[in-house]
Amino acid sequence: AADKISLIPQDFFAELCEQIIQHLNHKIPGVNTAELYQRIQASGIEINVGDLAKIANIISFLFSTAARNNLSTEDLVTTLGNAISTLPKHALQVIRHVWNEQGKSINVSEDARNMATVGQFVDIKWKLGVAMSSDTCRSLKYPYVTVTLKVADPSGQITDKSFEMTVPQFQNFFRQFKEMAAVLETV
Q: Which positions fall inside the COMM domain (predicted)?
């Protein structure tokens, strides 16, 4: 991972670390590596989105473990030990700075440590489409609804999950949401 970290400019790496700290503090639902990946690509740097997600997981693990063990900035840097020789200098500077500034703010409660983790819903988008024809059928005129759910997995990575439904399926889906809303109003 250290060789992949060296590909990421300091400002983008700092932003990634900041988002991870915010996620660990429950201020944002997750780290949007897809959006960060697009901006890194736009700046002309070639890195794989999967590698960026792995780096985010490693840094998240590093910060959460350091918070659990109440490590000071110097303890964190010392604990990195062998990694100091392989991690790029700019990455170490960012980790040191971010941990020094915000590391103490991470609150890892005992309940949070023992709680089973599940993904967190972030956003939903939908669009209505009509399939007019295909190479096997000249006249379809088939309406469908495409739904995209934005979900933050337990590690904080934000991913999009898309699926299509027929209009009756979407109407049933909508009815179920209305039922959930009605039940929530009684709580």
A: 120-187
